[in-house]
């Protein structure tokens, strides 16, 4: 018969507690690792050559011997921002989960990389009454040239030394309204998340202000008319306040299949310069345009 001392009996609850804490910590740690982003860079096209896997922000790839060497990549989880210069500066772009056998304009030009984590994951405050967003603006088409990244409203681009400079954009998070004049005036257009390699003649080289808007533009809308590329107010959206002689300038010619008139009486025409068949729409929501669907090239206010 084996006798167990009292001291050993007293140690058992403490031991059990320590084991439980260790298991819980291990589970939490494993979950954190599993949910972290992961990116693998390859030195050649087609996922070939030397490779390097990143799981945390890397502000300087020089230290790892992989600066300006990446030619393809696999984003296994998370959304990653890749930049040409160290410290996440210079031209940047965001890539979601997927395989990228070639990096095109970023080939052999990446110097820093970091995962884009939504602000709510950190429990931090979010701007604009709960809305959060990020947009990257570029001075040349195809997301090239000098760049500026915004996380909050900018009512005058002169203050960020980028007035009348933006030619393309990448909306990383949230919906953004870009306007040709300071103070969110002039020609305005709303951009949902996505890559816009050309802002069109209506905004290219003319953007002077930008701000986050609600998904439906509510509460912050400056436009009198909204055009949608798909029926039911879906697809790409164009917001206008002024007569427009040719929607080609906005990359929206013959694309509108739904519209909202917020104020005034507006004439919509099949051809540029208000030519061809025209129809008048007053305030209201028109989820389908029938015979005018995908045929509008110009519009103007009648009263």
What is the gyration radius calculated from CA atoms?
A: 26 Å
Class by alpha and beta content:
mainly beta
Approximately how much helix is present in the residues?
under 10%
Low-confidence stretches: 1-35, 119-129, 216-222
Number of strands: 21
Pfam families: Crystall
Family: Belongs to the beta/gamma-crystallin family.
Keywords: Repeat
Protein name: Beta/gamma crystallin 'Greek key' domain-containing protein
Could you explain the architecture of this structure?
- With 303 residues, the chain is mainly beta.
- The protein has three domains: 38-115, Gamma-B Crystallin, domain 1 (Sandwich); 125-222, Crystallins (Gamma-B Crystallin, domain 1, Sandwich); 224-303, Gamma-B Crystallin, domain 1 (Sandwich).
- Helices cover 10% and strands 39% of the residues.
- It contains one helix and 21 strands.
- It has one helix at 6-35; strands at residues 38-44, 48-54, 72-77, 80-85, 89-95, 98-100, 112-115, 134-140, 144-150, 168-173, 175-181, 185-191, 194-196, 209-213, 225-230, 234-240, 258-261, 266-271, 275-281, 284-286, 298-301.
- The strands form six sheets. The chain has a four-stranded antiparallel sheet, with no helix packed on it. It has a four-stranded antiparallel sheet with strand order 9-8-10-13, with no helix packed on it.
- The chain starts with 5 loop residues before the first helix and ends with a strand.
